[in-house]
Write a structure and sequence with these properties.
With 362 residues, the protein is an alpha/beta fold. Helix content is 37%, strand content 23%.
């Protein structure tokens, strides 16, 4: 039992079942007991380890990619450098260290960290204490000032609330969290139906019990970023685990102390995530006037940016044990069977902008 579970049970008993999106939002962002409001979830002592925690090379190579994007911006105009969900600030710190190679980049950049957790903001301030740029904290992307934009988001969209719909004999019904006869949390199908035309026609042939997911919160942010890029120029990188084509399936998962957990078991104490639909993100951005490049796997993205060469430079002159550790990190970040295949990278650009190592936007 968790304090948030008691709170959710009381809410459901009084008001009725809640959607999966409402459940996910409460678990992660409840002001009293929400996961991100009450703890630092990152690193060995947290519930999960992100790529920036694994190696400095990840942030350095993203920094190199951002430097190439900067070359296409108006050098006489300041630009907004922004990160959504900066974690502990490690990725930004590594990126800014790379950016010192181009003083003009640092002179033109205005640093924005989009973070709602006061606890994580405190950690980020410490991490960036000696960085060449001081951050301005924003609650939402919309608070980032206008102007050319270089933005990235690593493992941000997977934590945004999703809606789930389950196939029933009466059509697609929204999946909800309610109470069973013993008063425990349980999934069920509600009365709300999926809007007509919201899924590909072939999904209508799915058997009963099939689940599909929608991500309106994520798509709205992608559209806002796309509109900004279309108007002011720049680039955005979205890095997350997910799929590049819309498909049925239940991807909602909980991680509790580095172990997969029942989604309903520890609300507020376990991290909840869902796989990101990159096709939907791209469509939202394009619909707002931006351009997108075909997504790359994280492995291809890092290798094209020079991961092996950077690893070789870090390992030069080191002991055999240290070199083995660097090789292990490369495997973890880039191997198809590890993060290299599971994670995808989507690049969104303004009308005339480019970013390495992506092909020309469509």
């Amino acid at each position: 039992m968790t304090r948030l579970k008691d709170k959710l049970k009381a809410r459901i008993a009084a008001e009725g079942p809640i959607s999966v999106a409402q459940y996910m939002s409460a678990c992660l962002a409840d002001p009293e007991y929400g996961y991100y409001q009450t703890r630092d979830p990152f690193g060995v002592k947290g519930d999960f380890i992100t790529a920036p925690d694994i190696s400095q090379m990840f942030g350095e190579l993203i920094g190199a990619s951002c430097l190439t994007a900067f070359e296409g911006l108006d050098a006489a105009q300041p630009f907004q450098l922004a990160e959504l969900g900066p974690g502990r600030g490690t990725l930004m710190a590594d990126l800014l260290r790379t950016a010192t190679l181009r003083p003009a980049f640092l002179e033109a950049a205005r640093l924005n960290l989009v973070e709602t957790s006061e606890r994580l903001r405190s950690v980020q301030k410490k991490t960036l204490k000696n960085a060449p740029l001081a951050p301005e904290f924003r609650n939402t992307f919309e608070e980032v000032p206008d102007g050319p934009l270089i933005l990235f988001a690593n493992e941000f969209f997977d934590a945004l609330p999703i809606h789930q719909f389950v196939k029933t004999p009466d059509g697609w019904r929204e999946r909800q969290v309610g109470l069973d006869t013993a008063g425990e949390l349980v999934f069920g199908a509600g009365a709300a139906k999926l809007p007509a035309g919201a899924v590909p026609p072939d999904f209508e042939n799915c058997p009963a019990g099939t689940i599909i997911e929608t991500q309106p919160a994520a798509n709205a942010i992608a559209a806002a970023i796309g509109a900004r890029l279309a108007t002011h120029g720049g680039v955005a990188l979205f890095i997350d685990y997910g799929y590049v084509r819309t498909a049925p399936g239940d991807t909602l998962q909980a991680l509790y102390k580095h172990t997969y957990d029942d989604v309903l078991a520890h609300p507020g104490e376990a991290d909840l995530t869902a796989h990101v639909n990159f096709e939907a993100l791209a469509a939202a951005a394009v619909g707002a006037g931006a351009r997108t490049c075909p997504p790359l796997t994280q492995g291809d993205f890092l290798l094209r940016l020079g991961l092996l060469e950077r690893a070789g430079a870090l390992g030069a002159g080191k002991s055999a044990r240290e070199q083995d550790a660097i090789r292990d990190v490369v495997e973890r970040l880039a191997a198809p069977e590890q993060m290299g295949g599971l994670f995808k990278v989507l690049a969104i650009t303004g009308p005339r902008d480019r970013i390495a190592p992506f092909d020309t936007p469509g």
